[in-house]
Amino acid sequence: MYHRRKSGILLHPTSLPGPGGIGSLGKECRHFIDFLEAAGQSLWQILPLGPAAYGNSPYSCYSAFAGNPLLIDLAAIVDEGDLDESAPVPVFPAEYVDFALAENYRIPLLKAASAHFYALGDRERKEEYWHFCDTTPWLHDYALFMALKEHFGGKSWTSWPKEIARRESAALEKYSVRLGVAIGEQKYAQWQFYRQWRHIREYANGKGIGIVGDIPIFVAFDSADVWSAPHLFKLDEKGKPTVVAGVPPDYFSETGQRWGNPLYNWDAMAAEGYRWWIERFRSCFALCDMVRIDHFRGFEACWEVPAKEKTAVNGQWVQGPGAPLFDAVIGALGQLPIIAEDLGVITPEVEELRDRYRFPGMKILQFAFDSGPGNPYLPHNYIPGCVTYTGTHDNDTTVGWFKTLSPHNRKGVLAYTGTSGKEIHWELVRLGLASVADLAIFPLQDILGLDGSARMNLPGTPRGNWSWRFTAGALAEKHAERLHELTTLFGRKRGE
Q1: Is 391 left (phi over 0), alpha (psi -120 to 50) or beta?
Q2: Closest CA to 181 of 131, 144, 129
Q3: 20 to 30 A Cα–Cα from 14, which one of 50, 104, 189, 336?
Q4: Tens digit of pLDDT for each residue in 338-354?
Q5: Going edge to edge, which strands form the sheet with 210-216?
Q6: Is 34 a known active-site residue?
Q7: pLDDT tens digit sequence for 121-151
Q8: Which listed residue (28, 37, 73, 294) is catalytic?
């Protein structure tokens, strides 16, 4: 599917260094792309770009279509004249994101920039802005949802007055007028996000680097997606979920994972020709060159947990849409470069669905050393047409993982790599690059050799995740040179 071997780095933009308390789409973003170029890489994989909601997770967003306004490069807005550069900057931690502090600093500045733009912005940019508004079908519902959420003190949409929670036409019109300024602020932020991301993608593509995006199969309950189309989800008469998403007990948790996302009403989706999913894929591919589908197996069958349950133990597998959904998406958009996250409880039916469309699956090296030579994650068992990782955003860093292994499993890792384990992160990177996998992708933490304190997410824990950042100067020329050498050695160098 990919015609040649490639490799790349997994890093979410929030983890970039720089001022403002959180990574942004500014010069640090371009510097990271320059690093990828110097290291001979072809891919930059990111996490979902949406406005994170509960727990700051990019897999739980207020919209499946909108961008995260916290990522907007404020310096660019200053350069355009919408913002005064004299605003005082708080002291932010350098090694992690304080999301509350970053939001309290950045959002008021975006609102001020919005006011300036509407009052004094030049005609050319305003024409660009109005074109964006006119051609972005999800924008008004999202902007109204966020304005309403702010107006009602952050409450979930089911706690709003019934007439607007149920989207009665008179209420939609009333609040669209009453909250016009706040709606405008939201639309301005989305315009800036999308135009800035477009420039970043063009910059990367110009250097031969493709962006690998991410589509979570599920959406957050308290989101513009559910509020604007409740008939597409399994909700009761009060708008509350009757069942929620999760996974059964697995490697990560003895009680499974109760994610809490509402589940889709697939019959209603099918009756509309899967239009919602077609637009979701269209939107994501407008931002990215390739897309990883998180929890791909849920399209074949998903773990359905009664909403009243506190854990995911008492769930059941319920059939998903399967091939008809992908037939509809591909029929509308053409063949798409998709990676299927096929981890967890994978059945022959899931594999059949994945292979029907030639979607490459994922091989995680950290999963390879606990069950002997037949383990499917060991590189000698790979076949072409897969994507290998040392670990994902849900795994510990390789250094952290290695430290916590049992003596028996650690001995197996050392035997397989033929090393002392002194630089275990580079040994696993080398295994991935040398394998027959079409694509090899590594979290930046593993290139830097960081321990478990740099872990991005610990599944099943509601707090303390998603906040890791690398500091300015952490990425050195030696990292680019070493990665370039290995990438070239194993035939994955960009442009070859």
Answers
A1: beta
A2: 144
A3: 336
A4: 999 999 889 999 999 99
A5: 338-340, 290-294, 210-216, 43-45, 6-10, 439-443, 386-389, 361-364
A6: no
A7: 899 999 999 999 999 999 999 999 999 999 9
A8: 294
Distance CA(217)–CA(265), nearest Å, equals 13
Residue with tokens 């003190």: 153
Q: Is the confidence at residue 19, as pLDDT, over 60?
A: yes
What's the CA gap between 335 and 318, in Å, rounded?
Answer: 27
Q: What is the dihedral of CA 59, 63, 69, 73, to 10 degrees?
A: 70
- Tokens 């990782």 correspond to what residue? 389
CB atoms within 10 A of CB 418: 7
Of 394, 396, 438, 446, the catalytic one is 394
Task: Please provide the DSSP assignment of 139-166 as one string.
Answer: HHHHHHHHHHHHHTTT--GGGS-HHHHT
Is 394 one of the annotated active-site residues of the chain? yes
- The DSSP call for residue 70 is G
The Cα 108–Cα 116 span in angstroms is 12
What is the pTM for the complete model shown? 0.96
Using CA atoms, how far apart are residues 397 and 437, in angstroms rounded to an integer? 21
Strands 361-364 and 301-306 turn out to be unpaired
Give the span between the Cα atoms of 251 and 253, in whole angstroms. 6
- The letter for the amino acid at 433 is L
The CA distance from 100 to 16, in Å, is 17
- For the chain, what is the total number of helices (H) and then of strands (E)? 18, 12
**Active site (annotated) includes residue 141:** no
- Catalytic residue, chosen from 73, 82, 214, 341, is 341
